[in-house]
Amino acid sequence: MLTKAFIPYKGYYSSPFARWQGSLANENSIILGSQTARNWLETKTISPDIFDYLILGITVGQPYMFYGGPWASALIGAQNIPGCLISQACSTSTTVLFQAAIGIETGFYQNVFALMTDRCSNGPHTIWPNPNGPGGQVISENWVMDHFNNDPWAKNAMIQTAENVAKETGVTREQCDEVALRRYEQYTDSLANNREFQKKYMFPVSIRVSKKKIIQMDADEGIMASTKQGLENLKPVLPDGSHTFGSQTHPADGNCGLIVTTKEKAGDLSLDSTKDAQIVSYGFSRSKKGFMAMAVVPAAQMALDKAGISIREVKVIKTHNPFAANDIYLAGQMNIDVNSFNNFGSSIIFGHPQAPTAGRLIIEGIEELADKGGGYMLFTGCAAGDTGAAMVLKIES
Percentage helix, strand, coil, to 5, in the chain? Predict the structure, then answer.
């Protein structure tokens, strides 16, 4: 159990998420994420000089990614601090926050800025020489699409892992459609009263389209409306599968940032110190080969066990659910109502930029928990390679 690492209330932001090949498709995600973070810090009148370390989470290669950590530090205005880069597919945000918390816990850091950013659009293509190829033909890889479609260990696409779990555990097409519709309805709750909930944490992205013109993106882009009939009319992604394009997530672009610090310094930076969120524990897992959606459960149970609590003591649950089967399996295994969690949104609806996805979900969870008067929050999610990661946070009630 961790006792010393805190996220100040309102000491975080998430950008809106843009649809794949949308408004952010041509932006270097490191530059865009850093500039957005710097703009956010300025609006909060928080000096970048307070940070002694930056951890950058990113999974999709960008120009100059080799310099990622210290480059991002300089771009946010903290020119004199180092930074490192963590890439762990969909678990990136969770692991970044845990590493920041460990640094606070051990006294190596006082104030850490955790910046997670990715651009799935226009993903890079890597080429390696192949002297033995016919005519010198190269070996090539598309960083995004090839990774979606081929796990080199399990030898299958990500959608197949969800279908494997659905088939083994009896998850039906009808159940997946029902969960997808429920998640859409929960997302629309965040839009009520002129997006009142989203505006608690969402920060606009500025995009320069020419030397003289800058536009702002201040809301999610590419949200697809769902209806019961519309979902029923979609064909399964795989023949005889349980998932359609309406019950799985979609690639996206975006970024988020969180401050991780001590309890005392969190109080100084917080909008309301009674709502500061303590990072309590972390969990990780790996399921059997080709069954990624199962990894959410042992990761969650490990985080709960490390926190010394049961699922019944958790007030808010958020999940990274690239497939509806993830949430259905979690609910069944932990004996909870699948309709009771992921209030106000989840990645199955607003998309999956990879590195910042879990960060946004954790931020949403903190806001929901604060509105409920505190208690425990659980985040859990799967990640490439049949792995999972989870985190428990607490706001004193």
Answer: 40, 25, 40
- Looking at residue 88, the DSSP 8-state letter turns out to be B
Predicted confidence band of residue 358 (pLDDT cuts 50, 70, 90): very high
In a domain, 140, yes or no: no
Which of 211, 238, 273 corresponds to the end of one domain? 273
- Give the CATH number for residue 348: 3.40.47.10
Q: What is the tens place of the pLDDT at every residue in 263-297?
A: 999 999 999 999 999 999 999 999 999 999 999 99
Residues 6+ apart with CB under 8 A from 316: 341, 343, 365, 368, 369, 372, 375, 376, 377, 378
Does 188 share its domain with 206?
no
For 126-156, b/e burial (b = at least 16 CB within 10 A) is eeeeeeeeeeeeeeeeeebeebbeebeebeb
The closest alpha carbon to 183, from 291, 283, 282, 331, belongs to 331
Measured in residues, the chain has a length of 397
Can you give the pLDDT at residue 213?
84
Statement: residue 397 has pLDDT above 90: no
Work out how many domains the chain is built from and give that number. 2
Q: Which of 369, 370, 58, 371 is nearest to 379 (CA)?
A: 369
Instruction: Give the pLDDT of residue 383.
Output: 97
Give the burial string for 228-243 (b: 16+ CB within 10 Å, else e). eeebeebebbeeebbb
Which helix (H) or strand (E) element contains residue 287? none
Domain extent, residue 257, equals 6-124+198-222+249-273
Eight-state DSSP code of residue 296: H
One domain, residues 117 and 259: yes
Q: Are residues 300 and 355 in the same domain?
A: yes
pLDDT interval class at 81 (50, 70, 90): very high
Beta-sheet pairing, 53-57 with 111-119: parallel
Q: What is the pLDDT of residue 98?
A: 98
Q: Which of 373, 389, 393 lies closest to 381, judged by CA?
A: 389
Phi, psi of 24 (to 5 degrees): -105, 10
Do 283 and 384 belong together in one domain?
Answer: yes
In a domain, 117, yes or no: yes
* Alpha carbons 98 and 100: distance in angstroms, whole number: 5
pTM more than 0.90:
yes
The answer to whether residues 169 and 293 belong to one domain is: yes
Pair 272, 11: CB distance under 8 Å: no
DSSP for residue 15: P
Q: What is the pLDDT of residues 145-170, one digit of tens each?
A: 999 999 999 999 999 999 999 999 99
